[in-house]
Amino acid sequence: MGDMTTGHAAGLAELRAEFPVLAQSVNGAPLAYLDNAATTQMPLAVLEAVQRFDRHDRANIHRGVHTLSQRATDAFEQARADLLRYVGGGAEHELVFTSGATESLNLVARGLTTAGISDASVRAGDEIIVSALEHHANLVPWQQAARRCGAQLRILRPDAQGRLQVDDLARLLSGRTRVFAVTACANATGERPPYEALLACAAEAGALTVLDAAQAVSHEVPDLSALACDFMAFSSHKMYGPMGSGALAGRRAALERLEPLRYGGDMVSWVGSTEAGFAELPARLEGGTPNVAAAVGMAAAAAYIDRVGRARIDAHLMALRRQAVAGLAAIAGLTVLSPQAQHSAIVSFVAEGVHPHDVGTLLDARGIAVRTGLHCAHPLLEHLGHGPTTRASFALYNTHDEVERLVAGVAHALEVLR
């Protein structure tokens, strides 16, 4: 497979042409968009899918007998089926649309621990284990859930290199462990934990397992059918799709244990004056009017990724990261986090005596867009002994020339700032 410029009828230049936002200059220089861990750009195929729906099929779903409503419903349910297949879901799985990975993870954390529900899956005295690699969206909901229901929150900490070890998890697990939550890729460092083995270890101990796949779903896509995974959260805007949309996929039996996060239209089977009955999955967890156009766009993004080729994208991103790590590590006084990570599209670094915001500002002056700060992963960076970092993250449309520009830009910024 190898480089994106080979093995396909269209080379990298043709692929880049499918992303209109990239064809612009920023501060007098060609845009090098290296902030893909925050949000990826959308190709024409996705933009057109969203516009086509809004121009021809826009209507509310499930509630109308007219033609547009039926077409919108069909498009929404087809998007659900396509996305579930994209992440390897089988007959025992279901997919629920949400506003993104954050809502998906909140849905699980609150749905398993809602106070006052006698048959809640997690109760006082139980234990919840969360890895220390997590984005705040897979930590704060569990902090609140533990406080709400009286469970104990335990943290699986990485080693000095930022790596999680299965043996450490095994020592934390107990007969009271009810939930284990972990990321498929640390957004602050690029570390790709052995989540397959970690999930299997937790499941064997009887815990429900939660995977934050937001940083993996655009290339090294987790395969639900091959994982001991009860819940998997991911976002559209990190896989070349629209913002404000995402999904919670998982085992139907596990999803059925969740108390709904939102009550109202379309999630009920009947309503009386003082009580109501809930609909079956997935409607039970999708209260309110969904973002149908975004769901259609999300499915179009998944189809686009498969059209380009997952293995081809993986190889390209790993090559870009290797190049970036080698170039940045050669700069005096600069430390790359998790340099050993292989299956990643993220490179995060700190420079001695220089604030990342200043580095990011000087890179932006050269048309290079990166992310600076704590990346919603404050506990992880504190554990590793770092404050805020500069983070470059790659997508299928990035080039080796852009990596060279990044390295040269960082070297120049350090010269100026020092």
Can you walk through the features of this model?
This protein has 418 residues and is α/β, with parallel strands linked by helices. The protein folds into 2 domains: 12-39 and 309-417, Aspartate Aminotransferase, domain 1 (Alpha-Beta Complex), CATH 3.90.1150.10; 48-306, 3-Layer(aba) Sandwich (Aspartate Aminotransferase, domain 2). Helices cover 36% and strands 17% of the residues. It has 13 helices and 17 strands. A 7-stranded mixed β-sheet has the order 4-10-9-8-7-5-6, sandwiched between helices. Helix 2 (44-56) packs antiparallel against helix 9, helix 4 (101-113) runs parallel beside helix 5 and helix 11 packs across helix 13 (400-417). The longest helix has 20 residues, at 67-86. The two termini are 42 Å apart.
**Any idea what the radius of gyration is?**
22 Å
CATH architecture of the largest domain: 3-Layer(aba) Sandwich
CATH C-level name of the largest domain: Alpha Beta
**Class from secondary-structure proportions:** alpha/beta
Q: Reading side by side through the largest sheet, how are the strands ordered? A: 4-10-9-8-7-5-6
Order of helices and strands: HEEEHHEHEHEHEHEEEHEEHHEEHEEHEH
Count of strand segments:
17
Overall pLDDT confidence: 95
Helix % is 25-40%
Uncertain spans: none
Main sheet specs: 7 strands, mixed
Strand content: 15-25%
